[in-house]
Amino acid sequence: MKKAAPKSGRGLLIPIEVIENKILILRGHRVMLDRDLAELYGVPVKRLNEQVKRNSDRFPDDFMLQLTLEEGEAVLLSRSQIATLKRGQNIKYRPYVFTEHGTVMLANVLRSPVAVRASIQVVRAFVHLRRMLATNEDLARKIEALERKVGKHDADLQAILNVLQELLQPPAAAKRPMGFVGPGKKY
After folding, report:
1. Which one is predicted more confidently, 74 or 63?
2. What pLDDT, in 10s, does the model give residues 49-66?
3. Which of 45, 156, 158, 174 has CB 3.0 to 4.6 Å from 38, enough for a Cys bridge?
4. How distant, in Å, are the alpha carbons of 28, 30, 79, 146 from that of 24?
């Protein structure tokens, strides 16, 4: 007997790696496109944007940005394997992008169980990226400190090597020996 396929979005968690690949950095913010969030939350983009407009007081400037048409086209082209978009994928409206806080607010506005579960995974993805960036920044600081130490030591080591090379070189031969020269010896 075959098992019934689970209903879409029910009990299934979206892998964090999938969500992380949809997080972009635009205008200095880590954001997600409205169409990606609509897909994750299981609603059409039109419905998502409709709810945003109805609840505009819940989305201040630091929760949501609206891209220009040029930025939207650039984002879509950068995500495409080929340079041309499929029919119907041209941008007609300026897309919205949502920060981490905006994605949570969006799930609250949509009020569906799928949106709530997906928003938890989205927040986990943002937190995971933040941790990775913090680790990378800490590592970069440690490498920079090490480079500064090595740079100072390099100068000291070079000075020591120069002195050692001078000591290893044989003294210049004298043209004439010093002291008494005995009979039968020539100089």
Report:
1. 63
2. 898 899 889 988 889 988
3. 45
4. 10, 6, 10, 32
Q: How far apart are CA 63 and CA 85, in angstroms?
A: 29
Residue 174, CB-side half-sphere exposure with 13 Å CA sphere? 5
Report field, pTM of the whole predicted structure over 0.70: no
Q: How does DSSP assign 76-136, residue by residue?
A: HHHH-SSSSPPTT-S--SPPEEE-HHHHHHHHHHH--HHHHHHHHHHHHHHHHHHHHHHHH
pLDDT, position 78: 66
Flag whether pLDDT at 14 surpasses 80: no
What CATH number has the domain bearing residue 48? 3.10.260
Q: Is residue 182 part of a domain?
A: no
124, 103 Cβ separation under 8 angstroms: no
116, amino acid identity: V
**What distance in Å separates the CA atoms of residue 102 and residue 105, rounded to the nearest whole number?**
5
Range of 22's domain? 16-133
Q: What secondary structure letter does DSSP report for 168?
A: H
The string of pLDDT tens digits covering residues 86-130 is 555 566 778 889 988 888 888 888 878 888 788 888 888 888 888
Q: Record the tokens describing residue 78, joined without a space.
A: 């950068």
